[in-house]
């Protein structure tokens, strides 16, 4: 035991002499391990494990020119919103761009991030701002071709193709722009740190340098970020913590509709959604996108039902279509597009157990119109009624909307903003609705609009199929 104690003491003294603690630490979450590994065992981040570093070193206090002022005396006029004149983007950001703010815009390849930001850059330049657009994925000539196509040409819009961080910061020093756009943060690299462009170390260095320049110059910086196969933002999670706003740009590859959501916003709400239409001549904001998600035909067809979903605080009317057919043999087939497949499986079980709609041995196909993705539980009732309509081969009224969450016991649960949903339905020409029960009497219902409150799925189906 004395020998073992002597070895431990020798190791401790050796570690102390080097000034480092034994083991390794994750730079993302602080998880420690006695040996180096490539992936963190806590946050699952790759390449974030490093040496613990020296111990005992402490940052000493420095003298300040003047003490911190009282918060009431701080001048906030320099941090006022500046509109981008892209209405849907201003809606998501909470009013526009804030000087000194750093915005991270992430999305899948080809969704339209560069087109949107080039349009924003030209509008900001036309309104009197000096804008610097740094592209690391394309040449300047390629960006110029897109700018000519969408009409994004302005006298104060500067364009440079750089992949070196030092050169990009040099352009910032020379031009002193009001708005900086970097497309993308994964393409820039610094010679001061090791690693390839897009790696964890490089992204951390690039982001820290650009954020420092934005705060120092009171310059708005918009960074484009890539996403992984799972849909999360590529790079260390530290990147999302450092920036002020994180926006996600989504859309189906075969659809022109694009949705912009704020995941994090230090200056505004995170429950707003911006809708855009990606065309050959650029990207256009859609102030009223509800009509895109409803079939234009007036013919009554079984298996269709219209619902009202809330995307943030914006009500959107969408149509759900269902098709039921006999199984040709073997296991019944399930196909779901635009909805959560697990919730659709649950609805099939609830329909059979609580409403005697036997679909477990039939092929079922459920899809949304227009390529919209509906994730809100309030669309459960409309999906269930579309399936029941297809099963009974009896169409629903084209002037009917319905929404509500369906539970495993077959109950219809309350959803928020019932009045707002009804007003949106009435505005688009619908005349009656089936909704979940409200704890208080509904107020503000449009005149002539009929509303039926139901407590169970069976009651809702009995309302529209009284003889089935």
TrEMBL record:
Gene3D superfamilies: 3.30.230.10, P-loop containing nucleotide triphosphate hydrolases. Keywords: ATP-binding, DNA damage, DNA repair, DNA-binding, Hydrolase, Metal-binding, Nucleotide-binding, Stress response, Zinc, Zinc-finger. A motif (RadA KNRFG motif) lies at residues 264-268. Residues 78-227 form the RecA family profile domain. GO terms for biological process: recombinational repair. Residues 1-20 are annotated as: Disordered. This is DNA repair protein RadA. It comes from Zhihengliuella halotolerans.
């Amino acid at each position: 035991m004395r020998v073992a104690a002597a070895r431990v003491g020798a190791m401790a003294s050796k570690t102390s002499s080097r000034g480092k603690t034994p083991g390794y630490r994750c730079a993302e979450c602080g998880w420690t391990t006695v040996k180096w590994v490539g992936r963190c065992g806590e946050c699952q981040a790759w390449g974030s494990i490093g040496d613990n570093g020296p111990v005992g070193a402490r940052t000493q206090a420095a003298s300040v020119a003047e003490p911190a002022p009282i918060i009431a005396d701080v001048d906030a006029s320099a941090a006022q919103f500046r509109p981008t004149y892209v209405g849907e983007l201003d809606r998501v950001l909470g009013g526009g761009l804030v000087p000194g703010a750093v915005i991270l815009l992430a999305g899948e390849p080809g969704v339209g991030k560069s087109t949107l930001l080039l349009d924003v850059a030209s509008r900001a330049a036309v309104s009197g701002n000096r804008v610097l657009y740094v592209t690391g994925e394309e040449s300047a000539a390629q960006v110029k071709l897109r700018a000519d196509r969408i009409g994004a040409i302005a006298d104060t819009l500067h364009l440079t193709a750089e992949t070196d961080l030092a050169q990009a910061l040099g352009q910032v020093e020379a031009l002193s722009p009001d708005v900086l756009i970097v497309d993308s943060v994964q393409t820039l690299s610094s010679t001061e740190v090791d690693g390839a462009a897009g790696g964890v170390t490089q992204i951390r260095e690039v982001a820290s340098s650009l954020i420092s320049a934005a705060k120092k110059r009171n310059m708005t910086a918009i960074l484009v970020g890539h996403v992984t196969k799972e849909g999360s933002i590529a790079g260390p999670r530290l990147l999302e913590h450092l920036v002020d706003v994180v926006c996600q740009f989504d859309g189906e590859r075969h659809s022109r509709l694009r949705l912009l959501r704020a995941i994090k916003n230090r200056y505004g709400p995170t429950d707003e959604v911006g809708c855009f239409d990606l065309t050959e001549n650029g990207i256009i904001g859609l102030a009223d996108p509800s009509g895109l998600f409803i079939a234009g035909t007036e013919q009554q067809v079984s298996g269709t039902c219209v619902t009202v979903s809330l995307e943030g605080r914006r009500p959107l009317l969408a149509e759900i279509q269902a098709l039921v057919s006999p199984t040709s043999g073997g296991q019944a087939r399930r196909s779901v597009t635009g909805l959560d497949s697990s919730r659709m499986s649950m609805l099939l079980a609830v329909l059979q157990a609580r409403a005697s709609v036997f679909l477990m041995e039939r092929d079922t196909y459920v899809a949304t119109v227009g390529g919209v993705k509906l994730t809100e539980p309030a669309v459960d009732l409309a999906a269930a009624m579309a399936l029941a309509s297809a099963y009974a081969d009896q169409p629903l009224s084209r002037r009917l909307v319905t929404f509500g969450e369906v539970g495993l016991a077959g109950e219809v649960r309350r959803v928020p903003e019932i009045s707002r949903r009804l007003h949106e339905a009435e505005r688009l020409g619908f005349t009656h609705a089936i909704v979940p029960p409200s704890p208080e009497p509904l107020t503000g219902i449009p005149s002539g609009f009929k509303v039926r409150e139901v407590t169970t799925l069976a009651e809702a189906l009995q309302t529209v199929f009284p003889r089935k």
